[in-house]
Design a protein that fits this description.
320 residues; Spore Coat Polysaccharide Biosynthesis Protein SpsA, Chain A; ten-stranded mixed beta sheet; 12 strands
Length: 320
């Protein structure tokens, strides 16, 4: 099999069906490609609605709708589809991850496949992501560090320029280039990467799972590239509401961040990152008091950060 595409649904069946429809046009070039839609225990009728719509559209020969039975998060849902595919006789050459709120533009998938076929030393490829307007979404990143935590929470131009080597979000690439990691809204993974480094870590409920995965792949000799010619339209946070700054940051974001630093860099780096975050955030609040700047972070962000990160950390990172 050339390609297995995976879409995880959580309470967005209509949007998921739109994503499947856009994807099916992209897969016309790959007659043996298959799509697995994983309903992550939505409990809102999503599974039955998705399955009926797939049958009505005549996709049932290529699109399978399955129930995970548990809302274990983004990595868990993808792994639920990928794990049996890697165990079967006809393994996919590539696995394509597509968000349920993302819709491939014409040629999106084919360009990613062609890129990895032409560059066998590269393990993961993502591309240009934009909103419906279209407004570019930043999906080309560096790995986070204690310096990047300080820069991000401070948000001061002169400091950003001084620490530009550590800024997580890269400037929008104008040409295809290597990156540390890219968002899994549209991500193509070579099968050998999954066989060598394993699946995404489903100890992350949401966020940092693709950062962790790309880091593990990089350490195993599989770099990640950003392919500008591959584009996808992305709504963003349709299932999570994470962009709404009027509500507190979900606890799983703090848990995922802590898991990433502790698992990949150890306790000392975790606490250095926490210190950078807090010092930057406090300095930013002084700026708010001295100027007319308005806060842009979610409600109670620093307070909730401190509350979460002052909890004891066990020797082995686990999902909170």
């Amino acid at each position: 099999m050339k390609l297995l595409a995976v879409i995880v649904n959580y309470k967005t069946p209509d949007m998921t069906l739109d994503a499947v429809s856009a994807l099916m046009h992209e897969l016309e070039a790959y007659p043996d490609a298959r799509v697995t839609v994983v309903d992550n225990d939505s409990r809102d009728g999503s599974f039955d609605k998705l399955r009926s719509a797939v049958d009505d559209a005549g996709w049932s020969g290529r699109v399978e709708v399955v129930e995970s039975g548990y809302n274990g998060g983004f990595a868990f849902g993808n792994n639920f589809a990928i794990r049996p595919a890697l165990a079967c006789a006809e393994k996919p050459d590539f696995v394509y991850l597509l968000n349920s709120d993302a819709f491939p533009d014409p040629g999106c998938v084919e360009r990613l496949v062609q890129f990895l076929e032409e560059r066998p030393e590269i393990g993961i490829a993502g591309g240009y992501v934009h909103g419906p307007e279209p407004v570019p979404h930043r999906t080309a990143f560096r790995f986070p560090t204690p310096f990047s935590e300080f820069e991000c929470t401070l948000g001061l131009g002169i400091v950003t320029r001084l620490l530009r080597r550590y800024v997580v979000a890269l400037p929008m690439p104008e040409q295809t280039c290597p990156v540390d990691w890219t968002a899994a809204a549209s991500m193509l993974i070579r099968r050998e990467v999954l066989e060598q480094v394993g699946l995404m870590d489903d100890g992350y409920f949401l966020y940092f799972e693709e950062t962790d995965f790309c880091l593990r792949a990089r350490r195993a000799g599989w770099p990640t590239w950003y392919v500008v010619e591959s584009a996808v339209t992305h709504i963003g946070s349709a299932s999570t509401g994470f962009l709404d700054t009027s509500t507190p940051t979900p606890t799983f974001w703090y848990a995922s961040r802590r898991r990433y630093f502790l698992k990949n860099h150890g306790r000392l780096t975790l606490w250095a990152a926490n210190l950078g975050f807090v010092v930057g955030a406090l300095a930013r609040r002084v700026r708010y008091l001295l100027t007319d700047l308005q806060p842009h972070e979610p409600t109670r962000h620093l307070r909730d950060f401190l509350k979460f990160n002052l909890r004891p950390v066990s020797g082995h990172p686990t999902r909170d």
